[in-house]
């Protein structure tokens, strides 16, 4: 009986020694997780729209057009590698600007700013209330913008004018869906 106990003791001691060696060779790191990096919004939502999104998407939308001139109709679209490179820069700005919309507690507009250009828009306080009350829907709308803008990148990388026009329409639709829910809900004017 003492021999069996001694054998079991040897097996147990060997197991403990093996486990100790394994732990020494592969120490577990228990460093605390880094705290999340706090975002510090500087621009208002309105400033992001007017300073980043609008000028960049307008450049893309205006890159394909039909213009009537005294000599006839002129079709404009990207032709050169440089044209496509510039379009890609603008599309990246729109795509990445959508990330700025996800930051919580961003002011809607500067103090005393007018958010209404045609009388249908809400006040900044009312817009903020809607976004706060429907935060998940707002995030979904911003994701829709980003997804649509990624479609621009795909079309641009393929140098496909038809797909660029289609993706541009999808961006416009994403913008309009968000604006009609949060900026000017209830606007009965034709769009």
Please give the structural blueprint.
Elements: H1 2-25, H2 45-61, E1 65-69, E2 72-76, H3 81-101, H4 124-133, H5 135-158, H6 161-183
Antiparallel strand pairs: 1-2
Helix pairs in contact: 2-3, 3-5, 5-6
Summarize the structure.
The chain has helices spanning 2-25, 45-61, 81-101, 124-133, 135-158, 161-183; strands at 65-69, 72-76. The chain is mainly α and 191 residues long. The protein has one domain: Four Helix Bundle (Hemerythrin (Met), subunit A), CATH 1.20.120.
Which short descriptors sum up this protein?
mainly alpha, 62% helix, 191 residues, Four Helix Bundle (Hemerythrin (Met), subunit A), two-stranded antiparallel sheet, 2 strands
What do you see in this structure?
- The chain is mainly α and 191 residues long.
- The chain has a single domain (45-183), classed as Up-down Bundle (Four Helix Bundle (Hemerythrin (Met), subunit A)), CATH 1.20.120.
- The protein is built from 6 helices and 2 strands, in the order ααββαααα.
- The protein has helices spanning 2-25, 45-61, 81-101, 124-133, 135-158, 161-183, and strands spanning 65-69, 72-76.
- A two-stranded antiparallel ribbon has the order 1-2.
- A hairpin with a 2-residue loop joins strand 1 (65-69) and strand 2.
- Helix 2 runs antiparallel to helix 3 (81-101).
- The longest helix is centred in the N-terminal third of the chain and has 24 residues, at 2-25.
- The chain is globular and about 60 Å long.
- The mean pLDDT is 86.
């Amino acid at each position: 009986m003492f021999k069996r106990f001694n054998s079991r003791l040897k097996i147990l001691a060997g197991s403990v020694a093996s486990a100790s060696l394994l732990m020494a060779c592969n120490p577990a790191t228990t460093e605390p997780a880094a705290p999340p990096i706090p975002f510090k919004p500087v621009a208002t939502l309105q400033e992001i729209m007017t300073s980043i999104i609008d000028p960049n998407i307008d450049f893309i939308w205006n890159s394909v057009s039909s213009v009537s001139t005294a000599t006839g109709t002129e079709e404009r679209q990207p032709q050169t590698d440089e044209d496509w490179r510039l379009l890609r820069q603008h599309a990246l700005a729109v795509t990445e600007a959508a990330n700025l919309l996800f930051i919580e507690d961003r002011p809607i507009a500067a103090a005393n700013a007018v958010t209404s250009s045609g009388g249908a828009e809400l006040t900044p306080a009312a817009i903020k209330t809607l976004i706060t009350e429907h935060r998940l829907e707002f995030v979904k709308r911003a994701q829709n913008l980003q997804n649509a803008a990624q479609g621009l990148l795909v079309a641009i990388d393929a140098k496909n004018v038809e797909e660029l026009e289609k993706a541009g329409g999808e961006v416009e639709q994403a913008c309009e869906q968000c604006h009609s829910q949060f900026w000017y809900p209830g606007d009965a004017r034709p769009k």
